[in-house]
Amino acid sequence: MDIRFKSAPGSYGDKEVLLHFFEEEVRDDAPLILLLHGVHGCASAAEGNKYGYLARSLAQKGYSVCATESSRSRRDRETFGDDRVAWAVAAFQGKTFAMEVADACSALAAAAEEHPGRRVVLWGFSLGGILSVLLAGGETGNFVRQTGMEPVSLPAADMLVISGSGDRIRPEAAAALALPVLNSLGSSEVIHLAASKVSLSCALFFYGGCDGTFDEESSRRILRSLRLEEGDKAFHILPGVDHSFRMLDGAPSLEPLEQMLAITTATLERFRRTAAPEDRQEV
Q: What confidence score (pLDDT) does residue 97 get?
């Protein structure tokens, strides 16, 4: 398998957005799948990395896949062990949600430049799912300008895959809102505005039945805002699965990822189209 690395301009810290491209006998009509991680997340080709695992699996099925990692002040996540709060503060202190949006735009622009003309599928986890909706709905320009960067021309998304995203965090998880990036989220109205403006072939939502961050209704509200025919959007609940899709019934498992991969690839084949999108949007 060919795994290539590229960096794009970032908004914060080291000023780099990292892109890992995974490819193996890519079909001519296969879309570019862009993976966007959750808040304070890490994406790489390293063994055991969730996004690397998804990217390899999709590439083996003939898709072109790019796993993205946003800008931060340090990238040694392993130094902090299980202390997620210490990691978030050390690597992202002072980073805003607007900067995450700018990074996502930069990642999409750079990935599309590598694969001009390919349809684009955005697959985002948690905060990455929110970013995916904003990208697809063209509601990123105001955020990008807040960072001092200029909006860029982006390809239109053809499909959304959203895993573990919602418009409101559970009250019992609200302490996380004090952490970098999350402390500047603002109103959820822009998420629904963006969702109402998307033009897609289809959308998939995945929700873990044991998600401790968002409740089911907060995820379904975003899905309802998408102006798609009911047959073109679907909501899948994965029983016993946690917010990160790493655990099943309290034990580490790859089954949640495999379930999402099976449903996503089946849907991709169902909505397979040979025509590439021509429209590009200023966002």
A: 98
> In terms of pTM, does the model score above 0.90?
yes
Q: How distant is the alpha carbon of residue 274 from its chain centre?
A: 24
Q: What kind and span of H or E run contains 53? A: helix 50-59
Are 184 and 98 a contacting pair, CB within 8 Å? yes
Q: What is d(CA 245, CA 205) in angstroms, rounded to the nearest whole number?
A: 13
21: three-class secondary structure by DSSP: strand
Listed in order, strand segments (DSSP E) in 10-128 are 16-23, 32-36, 64-69, 120-125
At CA 115, angle to CA 199 and CA 11, rounded to 5?
A: 80
**Burial of residue 153 (number of CB atoms within 10 Å: 0-12, 13-18, 19+):** exposed
**Which of 19-28, 78-87, 235-244, 268-277 has the weakest average pLDDT?**
268-277
277: left (phi over 0), alpha (psi -120 to 50) or beta: beta
CA 187 to chain centroid, in Å, comes to 19
Taking the C-alpha atoms of residue 65 and residue 59, their distance in angstroms, rounded to an integer, is 6
Measured between alpha carbons, how far is 63 from 59 in angstroms, rounded to an integer? 5
- Amino acid symbol at 127: L
Looking at residue 272, its amino acid is R
Contact 241, 248 (CB under 8 A): yes
Residue with structure tokens 């994406």? 43
Helix axes 97-114, 127-137, angle to 10 degrees: 70
Q: Give the integer Cα–Cα distance in Å for 163 and 28.
A: 27
